[in-house]
Amino acid sequence: MPGQVGDQGLKTLFSRYYKDFKSVEPDQISKREVGYIPFSGTMTRHLAFKTHRDLENFVTGIVPRHLYYSSTYYQWPLEKKMIEKGWMGAELIFDLDADHLKGASEMTYEQILRNVRDHTFRLVDEFLIGLAGFREDELRIYFSGGRGYHVHVVSEKVYSLNSDARREISNMIRGEGLNAKDLILNINNYGKLSGWAELVDREVTDTYKGIANGEYPKFLAENDRAAISSSLEQAVSLNGIVKKRKDILAQPGKNKYRLLNQLDREVVSRITDDVREKHACEIDEPVTTDVHRLIRFPFSLHGKTGLMVKPLTFSDLADYDPLTEAIPESSDVKARIEVKRKLKIRMRGENFEINEGEMELPGYVAGFCAGMGAAQILSIIN
Hints:
Blueprint (H helix, E strand, L loop, with lengths): L6 H12 L15 E4 L6 E4 L4 H11 L3 E5 L1 E3 L12 E4 L1 E5 L12 H23 L7 E5 L5 E5 L9 H12 L5 H7 L8 H18 L9 H11 L2 E4 L2 E4 H5 L12 H18 L5 H5 L4 E3 L13 E3 L1 H4 L4 H4 L8 E6 L3 E5 L2 E5 L2 E6 H9 L3 E7 L1
Antiparallel strand pairs: 1-2, 1-3, 3-11, 4-5, 6-8, 7-8, 7-12, 9-10, 13-16, 13-17, 14-15
Helix pairs in contact: 1-13, 6-9
């Protein structure tokens, strides 16, 4: 952005990359709106290009600090007013980064990347593939170049969804409103348990199996353990059949929720909260619900890190390391920088401790420092 330290040197580094920029994504480029933020000035949008080659030539000329395209398909993407663009449908987008990550302010950059990667894996594995049933080839996964990941659902199933439908999906993924009281009240209205209800029931079943064997959850107070153990030995009639409560509570399914006493309800409440904490994905809801969203362009550079917006496969995700995989080859040069604020970073498996003053570093480290506003690039050494 204007006024950030190291702008001109960083632009020089970016120009090395963009002179050979090749764009193969997204599809139907002529139906996408394109926007960018320059190294000097403000956001320019409502651009459109007939071909990827036209886009490449444009990008080489302007050298953007940030480059975006619409997740939406338009009939007339050049129009300035949204209502006049001719909305044709939009990909379903999920943006995961540190903004919604619990404890992010206490984490290093590398820790943030690992934590957001784990949320992204959970989103794809448990929700998009596991629950929603999307195929892997209907998903596009990208390291954002910054502090997280973008996941696109590219499918006829989602293009026509309006903002309200996308909000419902977002709320489900985030576990919004999930609580034991409503779950217990409504569980008998479910057919086969699925989604959050299935996840909670699985943990409730395992917990009562453990209690029946004398294994108590840590959150259960000492004086409640005897009471809950005793209650499990009580006989109850369910559907005309007399059984001990433990034989019902320790079995998966809906029957157990008819038998819960007050202490059981407290146990289920705690389990429900734990399940949400363990499985919910902290996505940026406004990105998912926005049917006119601009998102970072694949293979563009992120102006705050110098890293690439890099596509990856689901099989790559579990062990993906952007600080090795998303470094552009064009930054394999040396650069001299003046450090204004010291920092530490590990890139390509090497630890860098960057202290105030002038120093020479690999170009990708210099670009990262300049993008973060911690240094000024004085010169590029070929």
